[in-house]
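Hi Q.,

Before the meeting this afternoon, I wanted you to have the nicotinamide-adenine-dinucleotide prediction in hand. No need to reply - just skim if you have a minute. The sequence and ligand are here:
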Amino acid sequence: MELRITCIPGDGIGPEIVAEAKKVLDAVAVKYGHVMHYTDILMGGASIDVHGVPLTEEAVKTAKSADAVLMGSIGGDTTTSPWYKLPPNLRPEAGLLGIRKALNLFANLRPAVLYEELAGACPLKEEISAAGFDMMIMRELTGGLYFGERKTVEENGIRKAIDTLTYDENEIRRIAIKGFDIARKRRKKVTSVDKANVLDSSRLWRKVVEEVAEDYPDVTLEHMLVDNCAMQLVKDPAQFDVILTENMFGDILSDEASMVTGSIGMLASASLNDTKFGLYEPSHGSAPDIAGQDIANPIATVLSASMMLRYSFDLDQEADAIDHAVKSVLQAGYRTADIMSEGCERVGCRRMGDLLAERI
Ligand code: NAD
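Predicted structure with the ligand bound:
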């Protein structure tokens, strides 16, 4: 198979971790007989330095012409970098918002996995973390409270702020379909999270999710109120497979879920549109404090590449090979600095990439 991939190395550790992800993808290509066509584009600070803007139309065009986008991370030190003296629409992060919009990426996927070997980093009690967990948070990304009408007014000398939470059934249906499709590739369970005891938007969410579920009789659907879900994530995270939820709930729950893994350098993510196209990137930022030192953990980006193979190319076997390589490297005791623990061997970013590629 020929895979056309646009790469955004970005800023800070971005170029280092993307290079290692490509190394692992190349090993996959050799083993399984695929051809990878990479085209790099500039975004964020790297684009500002060359073009004066964080994202050019040319770059968007290149991204659109690919099957998927693999990104490192963008942005610099927000207190010292000259990029943050620019107006907000010209700062690095505007590039990311711009490309998400241009590519119509409405579904955000964030896995939260606790690896047995890294259980020590989990802040939960041992009796809870011992069971491990492997969940996927599917968050609606372009609707809801963050995109509704808002205003601040003054009424009779009292300041009043209004935000509007709106969802129509089409917005709910398309993300629900994504959620059920992803569950089919996993343990076939969807937990739809809402606040249907209070909000109309949640009651519609629940109805539409139930309608979509009729087309997926092999997937178990349960509903959970968001406040309960926040508790269950720390009480019994092993119960979750796919958590399907709206924008603001997903924003909060996905951060909570990633915190309970305790390892920021291990967390992948994806943003999808209604085709097979997706943008895949680590959940962490560009870590300018450790850039250029060959100490960054490339695993989150490597796992993002695995998600890309699974969800944009339906190459499940190849994605499994990457996931197994990660487990095998951890089992063998290799660690980058951020996940280092006693008795393990500390390796740099490039060596970690080599070790992963060798295990494909
Ligand atoms: P960060 O995630 O970059 O770093 C937080 C801490 O985690 C730092 O100590 C860093 O060294 C460490 N860290 C992060 N990734 C690591 C890795 N792979 N290996 C080892 N250690 C790692 O968050 P921040 O410092 O708040 O942000 C830095 C920049 O990244 C900012 O400009 C921010 O806007 C940007 N950012 C970009 C994205 C994105 O591109 N999607 C996301 C978040 C932050």
